[in-house]
Each structure stands twice: as structure tokens, then as C-alpha cells.
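So, could you explain the following?
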Amino acid sequence: MSPALIAQMTMPQQSTGVVGPHRRAPLARRLRVSATRRAIPKARAAAAKVLADWGLAELIFDACLVLDELLANVVVHCPATRTATVALVYDATGLRIAVSDVSHVEPR
């Protein structure tokens, strides 16, 4: 059983150059979070720490806003889901934020 992708969003690099420190390889982190309203602030804090550790503090506000919306979608549209996985990937194209769950129901 593969997780259903709820949504993802890519925050592109600015045209003036690379956002954050220059990296040779992509950065990626997966976070398992509880799929409840109470867990959303904890997930935002965990994602903010990851971005700060990567030297991408300038993306924290926008990334947390997007993450908040994606996780709220899981809570509202997949109430039986107990956990969700947040994937943060930073590469040459920008920052990608994806949220998935193990629901058998396809996103609408």
C-alpha cells in the first residue's frame, strides 16, 4: 500500500540566485506527524527547525503557512487518518513541501 499524496507545493528559487547556502546535493527530511488539529503547530515548529538548520530561515514563514494548509486538508478530508508524513525537499528547483497519508481514498 503506497501513501496517497494529499498535496505538494514547490517554492521556486529566486531568479537572483540560490536561496540559502549553496548546496551540492539536495536536502530532504521526512517528518511523521499526528493528523490532528492539535499537532499542526508542532509540525510547523519541526519544519521551521529543519529549515533553520538548513540555513533557509527566510523561507520559514511561507513554508509554515503552506504546511498549515496541507495538514489542515488531511485533518478535514481524511478524518480516519491517524498519521501523516511531511516531506521537505530542497534542491536546485526550490523547496518542495508534500504531505501524504495512508488513506485508501484518493484526493478530490
In short: The helical segments are 40-53, 60-77.
